[in-house]
Specification:
This protein is of the alpha+beta class. It contains 11 helices and 7 strands. Strand 1 (about 125-130) and strand 2 (about 130-135) form a beta hairpin.
Length: about 375
């Protein structure tokens, strides 16, 4: 057996095989044969050994010992998080959640996901691997699991886990990442690790739309974010797809329709085309009428002046005609209308306040205007 701290024969063999592969790859990268690259390395080793006052063999053994220690530290670093999780105190939040990407989700996890999907978690839209996903905060999910709505839902669905306090709510929330129904994410920088300056802000970027990445550790701090991978019931999308397929099939099978239906569709299409042509004819006629009246009787007459305004369908045809208005006049007209409405509202509120004041002045002291009035000045 190897002494403590010394590599085992299996580790030495694995290390030598790894060094051999690195040696061949480095030689091919430099465009040298293995013999040429070996001579080049020997010259470098001799120069470095002379600097440290060692022979070539001593220097090679020194390098191998350091590399083996680094390799062992890397292996210990991979196994250390599992031991840390087992020795953590109950109050700590960092946990290694066993995620099962290939196994079907548990019924309890599906029940929790369905309940949380039906609650108002104030989800936000984010971008994960080029796809839009719904994102929520942990604190709102914990709050929903401790609410009365969850107690009521659990009385109807016994598959929901029991939640008594925040610790049990966290345990119920852990079912989501274990079944790949929701995973913890953090805000990602698309230019992280690039050796260039930060680019200018994209004007087309939507404010508040995060680009996120999935985190390895599934923790449950209140301000952390999780992304939904559970889409819920898809019966609406399936119904829409079936309806679209039926419409396409019906259109394809149009020659097989009864003669009455085909005639009805023909008359309907002709009527729609007639209405569309009438609309374009009216638009051209109103433009010609305006061009004539703008010189004959300025500022010009419009037929259906609200036809292309941002109003309702019936309001587009009201009034029947109107004079051309400048933009400044329109703005002043809208401002005056708004001011009149505000003044009328303030007068109504003032009248209501004055009517609510008591008549008897002895009970409540009325507030007088402190500025002098004309009737208060004595005539000389």
């Amino acid at each position: 057996m190897a002494a403590p701290g010394q590599p085992t024969p299996q580790q030495m063999a694995q290390y030598q095989e790894q060094m051999k592969q690195q040696f061949l790859a480095e030689a091919a990268k430099r465009g040298m044969t293995p013999q040429q690259f070996q001579e080049f390395q020997q010259k470098q080793l001799d120069a470095e050994a002379e600097k440290m006052g060692m022979t070539r063999e001593q220097f090679i053994q020194h390098i191998r010992t350091q590399q083996m220690k680094q390799h062992q530290q890397q292996q210990q670093g991979q196994t250390q998080p599992q031991g840390q999780v087992q020795g953590q105190a109950p109050g700590q939040q960092q946990q290694a959640i066993p995620v099962n990407p290939n196994n079907p989700p548990k019924p309890e996890a599906l029940s929790v996901a369905k309940f949380l999907r039906g609650q108002d978690l104030k989800t936000r839209t984010c971008i994960l691997e080029g796809q839009r996903k719904d994102m929520f905060k942990v604190k709102r999910a914990l709050r929903a699991l401790q609410s009365s709505a969850y107690t009521k839902a659990r009385s109807k669905n016994p598959q929901l886990p029991e939640v008594k306090d925040e610790a049990s709510a966290r345990s119920a929330l852990q079912l989501l990442p274990m079944s790949m129904l929701a995973l913890r994410v953090s805000k990602a920088d698309a230019h992280e690790g690039h050796n260039h300056a930060k680019p200018a802000r994209d004007p087309k970027r939507v404010k508040g739309l995060w680009t996120v990445k999935v985190e390895k550790h599934q923790e449950f701090e209140p301000l952390m974010h999780y992304v939904w991978f559970y889409e819920g019931s898809q019966w609406k999308q399936k119904a829409y797809a079936v309806g679209a397929l039926c419409v396409v099939m019906a259109l394809v099978m149009f020659p097989l329709w009864p003669i009455v239906l085909r005639q009805g569709v023909w008359y309907l299409s002709v009527g729609m085309m007639g209405l569309l042509g009438l609309f374009f004819a009216m638009a051209i006629f109103r433009l010609i009428l305006f061009c004539i009246t703008v010189f004959a009787v300025p500022p010009g007459l419009w037929l259906f002046p609200n036809l292309f305004e941002d109003v309702g369908f019936f309001d587009s045809f009201k009034p029947l005609w109107g004079w051309q208005e400048n933009k400044k006049k329109k703005k002043s007209k809208k401002a005056s209308e708004k001011a009149g409405a505000t003044a009328a509202k303030s007068e109504g509120n003032g009248a209501a306040k004055s009517s609510a004041l008591p008549v008897n002045g002895s009970s409540v002291a009325t507030k007088r205007h402190m500025a002098p009035k004309v009737e208060d000045v004595e005539e000389e």
